[in-house]
Design a protein that fits this description.
The structure is a single chain. Helix content is 55%, strand content 0%. By secondary structure, the chain is an all-alpha fold. The chain has one domain. Helix 2 packs across helix 3. The chain is elongated and about 40 Å long. The N and C termini lie far apart (44 Å). This is Putative zinc-finger domain-containing protein. Keywords: Transcription, Transcription regulation. InterPro entries: Anti_sigma_zinc_sf, Znf_put.
């Protein structure tokens, strides 16, 4: 699973919005298609998704000094 030069450009800048389901349908399909073919972006997606899940566990009290 690697990206050929003819494939869509890397989608790293869209991964945060993709994880938060904040992309329109066309962008969502583009990112999903790219992630199936690009190991690097797929690894970055996993890291962003994990960070998002961990942030969801924080409480307001956790953010205060």
């Amino acid at each position: 699973m690697t990206t050929d030069p003819g494939d869509d450009p890397h989608v790293r800048l869209l991964l945060g919005a993709y994880v938060l389901d904040a992309l329109d349908a066309e962008e969502t399909c583009r990112v999903a298609r790219h992630l199936r073919r690009c190991d690097g972006c797929a690894r970055d997606y996993a890291a962003v998704a994990e960070a998002s899940a961990l942030l969801a566990l924080l409480r307001a009290e956790d953010l205060r000094e």
